[in-house]
Design brief:
The protein has helices at about 5-15, 35-40, 40-55, 70-85, 130-140, 155-165, 180-185, and strands spanning about 15-20, 30-35, 65, 90-95, 105-110, 115-125, 145-150, 170-175. It is α/β, with parallel strands linked by helices. The chain has one domain: Rossmann fold (3-Layer(aba) Sandwich), CATH 3.40.50.2020. The strands form two sheets. The chain has a six-stranded mixed sheet with strand order 5-4-3-6-7-8, with helices on both faces. A two-stranded antiparallel sheet has the order 1-2. Strand 3, helix 4 (about 70-85) and strand 4 (about 90-95) form a beta-alpha-beta unit. Helix 1 packs across helix 3 (about 40-55) and helix 3 crosses helix 4. The radius of gyration is 16 Å and the shape is globular.
Length: about 190
């Protein structure tokens, strides 16, 4: 069972830092969320997986996955907990760059063209990382049903997904930590 308050407490303790940071989007920020410190922790992995499975409900996609490396522990946790619940669910990894050896695929895993998939992400700011993952996943013939993230920084990601016909669901938003997004401060 998903415990939102326990996830908030764990993120506050392990992943939320204050200072001067440059995010993957290129934006400057006064706080940083290193959710790998949560998704690579046994308690955190379970909380995240339980929350994502609760969001997915009974209508599971064929697979979940996202951009390496941030989505990898999320994917592993979700498919593991799904398996413990006897729910069939596959995982996949989206490479940032194609390999020059092997099959040279951008998307790896036991997925097949036509599968319905959900993109998973740790933190969404502008949505750039997940949008790249969506492009690669769709090019591989998969049908993207939406994006699920642990935290939405509320800085345009949801709107970027909506413009491309995809819905963003999140376990938390930055407001759950008492931080107002820039649009609310203006």
């Amino acid at each position: 069972m998903y415990d939102k308050q326990a996830l908030i407490a764990l993120i506050r303790e392990k992943a939320l830092e204050f200072g001067d940071f440059t995010l993957a989007s290129g934006k400057k920020a006064s706080y940083y969320l290193d959710c790998r410190k949560v998704t690579l922790d046994s308690a955190g992995a379970n909380l995240v997986a339980e929350g994502i499975l609760d969001l997915l409900g009974d209508s599971l996609p064929d697979a979940v996955g996202g951009m390496a490396i941030g989505a990898d522990p999320i994917t592993a946790a979700v498919i593991t907990v799904a398996g413990q619940r006897d729910k069939p669910l596959k995982g996949f990894i989206v490479r940032k760059e194609s390999k020059a050896h092997g099959k040279g695929r951008d998307v790896e895993g036991p997925i097949e063209s036509g599968d319905a998939v959900m993109i998973v992400e740790d933190v969404v700011t502008t949505g750039g990382s997940s949008l790249k993952a969506i492009e690669k996943v769709e090019a591989a013939g998969l049908r993207v049903q939406g994006v699920i993230a642990i935290i939405d920084r509320m800085e345009g990601g949801a709107e970027a997904f909506a413009e491309r016909g995809h819905n963003l669901q999140t376990l938390l938003t930055i407001r759950d930590f008492g931080i107002e997004p820039p649009s609310a401060r203006a």
